From TrEMBL:
The lineage of its organism: Bacteria, Bacillati, Actinomycetota, Actinomycetes, Micrococcales. Pfam families: NIPSNAP (PF07978). Residues 7-98 form the NIPSNAP domain. Gene3D superfamilies: 3.30.70.100. This is NIPSNAP protein. It comes from the Bacteria. Transmembrane segments: none annotated.
Length: 108
């Protein structure tokens, strides 16, 4: 299993737009074979930082998702929401292997 950790720098004046973007991607990632763990929006402290986590069974499955998302009309529409508004200033993407619970082993 692979988990993708996204850190976003967002425009705090466009939190509502970024929230809409997140709602769309939760549904889209799940529809395209992933397991979205949610978006984590600013509440206290920094008002321009948000996070998202989602998992795929393997890196190969994630790559298939990326290929499908590049031509999926709903995904393209979500990308365009960001391009048109500038609600995301920048983002970082990290790939991690999750460890679940006390008895769990790392899942490659």
């Amino acid at each position: 299993m692979i988990t993708i950790h996204l850190r976003y720098q967002i425009d705090p004046e466009q939190l509502d737009t970024f929230t809409e973007y997140g709602r769309r991607w939760i549904r889209l990632v799940n529809r395209l074979g992933g397991d979205h763990h949610g978006y984590f929006l600013p509440a206290e402290g920094d008002n321009d930082e948000a996070f998202a986590l989602f998992s795929f069974p393997s890196l190969a499955a994630y790559e298939q998702y990326r290929i499908a998302a590049a031509t999926d009309p709903e995904c393209i529409e979500a990308y365009e929401l960001v391009r048109g508004t500038g609600c995301i200033v920048r983002f970082e993407r990290r790939f991690q292997t999750p460890l679940f619970g006390d008895e769990a082993e790392l899942r490659p």
